[in-house]
Design goal:
about 350 residues; binds iron/sulfur cluster; eight-stranded mixed sheet; disordered N terminus
Length: about 350
């Protein structure tokens, strides 16, 4: 699908991509430099990987939305960064060399990759649990309308971003009209059997704060959201995970522009919790970029901090050597405080 069609399908947008505006922050190096210049202490520990349990594949940066907090700088204009069928096949060959139980497919809006369904089916054929990180609104776009039933028939877990169960908070972050579309998509998922306690139709919502503060208590928010969405919209879901916003990409831009950058970083640093270290996603997840480069996590991927073998070679899916990768040191920098603050924050939500 080309960019103009995506443009037509998308609603009013919260912003545009850093790349399309030729913003200095479109450069990963500049983002790291902005964080490095702050008068803060550095991330204090060296992290080492455990066995790969989750194989996370980022199939591209194309998205029908352009949310303000996006750590990917995704949008309708990001048509070039799209995983090819050839790279997907390399991912599958690499997956066969691991004992990973879960394949976590992300983007952008991963469903917009033309090989998305092929990838899902190939992972399922290998007996993997497949998770789709879905922005909800994409399920209302032409080529994706049948996906709720398609996912349900296959037992794919859907992990959906919805910053808040109130319209205003969601639309501020993701663009006017997003909330109504998200509710419509959730209703379609409910109709397909999702969000009603069936382990083969698991529907997880992802909350991230709408502002420069840490995510609240995950359990109490889950209760509040379940009540709010059921009472106001008749929508049900299985679980809610709460993520901190990472101080990179478009959220970093917003922090700078709103004068919140230093204060937010101080909040993250002061809330450093060593109890989160064991559960950090970089320890049990390998992240594959759209071009086959390998990273410790999706955040390092966006900052172009490649995972490296012990001899310094950047790792790529075409020469995937899991045993040697297990000897690497995880690449850390100040953005890592976003994962270790408070209850911690990973792709699976709070850690501690
Ligand atoms: S946050 Fe998600 S839905 Fe929003 S622009 Fe980024 S990838 Fe797309
Ligand atoms: S950003 Fe988080 S997940 Fe990634 S390397 Fe740092 S601590 Fe680990």
């Amino acid at each position: 699908m080309g960019a103009p069609e995506i443009e037509k399908l998308s609603g009013p947008r919260a912003t545009t991509s850093l790349v399309s505006r030729a913003s200095p922050l479109a450069s990963a190096r500049e983002q790291l430099e902005v964080l490095r210049r702050l008068p803060l202490k550095d991330f204090p520990v060296e992290l080492r990987p455990a066995a790969i349990d989750i194989f996370q594949i980022n199939v591209g940066k194309l998205c029908n939305m352009t949310c303000r907090h996006c750590h990917v700088d995704a949008g309708p204009d990001r048509t070039l960064e799209m995983m090819s069928r050839e790279t997907i096949d390399l991912c599958l060959a690499a997956l066969d060399k691991t004992d990973a139980k879960t394949v976590d497919i992300t983007g952008g809006a991963p469903e917009l990759n033309p090989h998305f369904r092929y990838l899902v089916d190939a992972c399922l054929a290998r007996g993997k649990h497949v998770m789709d990180r879905c922005n909800l609104t994409v399920l209302l776009t032409g080529p994706c309308r049948d996906l709720p039933e398609w996912f349900a028939a296959r037992g794919v877990e859907i992990v959906c971003s919805l910053p808040h169960y109130r319209k205003r908070n969601t639309d501020i972050q993701r663009g006017e009209g997003t909330f109504e579309k998200s509710i419509a998509a959730l209703k379609r998922l409910n109709t397909a059997g999702y969000g009603q306690g069936d382990p083969r139709r698991r529907l997880t919502l992802v909350h991230n704060p709408v502002g420069a503060f840490l995510a609240g208590d995950q359990k109490s928010m889950e209760r509040e959201w379940k009540e709010g969405l059921a009472a106001n919209y008749g929508v049900t879901f299985d679980a809610l995970i709460a993520l901190n916003n990472m101080p990179i990409s478009r959220f970093l831009e917003w922090l700078q522009a709103s004068g919140n950058l230093e204060r937010y970083m101080e909040v993250l640093v002061n809330a450093y919790n060593p109890g989160t270290l064991q559960g950090l996603m970089c320890r049990n997840t390998l992240s594959v970029g759209w071009d086959g480069r390998l990273f410790d996590c999706d955040f390092n991927q966006m900052l172009e901090l490649d995972a490296r073998y012990a001899d310094g070679r950047p790792a790529h899916i075409r020469d995937f050597e899991p045993a040697k990768l297990g000897e690497r040191a995880i690449v850390t920098a100040r953005h890592c405080f976003g994962c270790t603050a408070g209850a911690g924050s990973s792709c699976g939500g709070a850690i501690a």
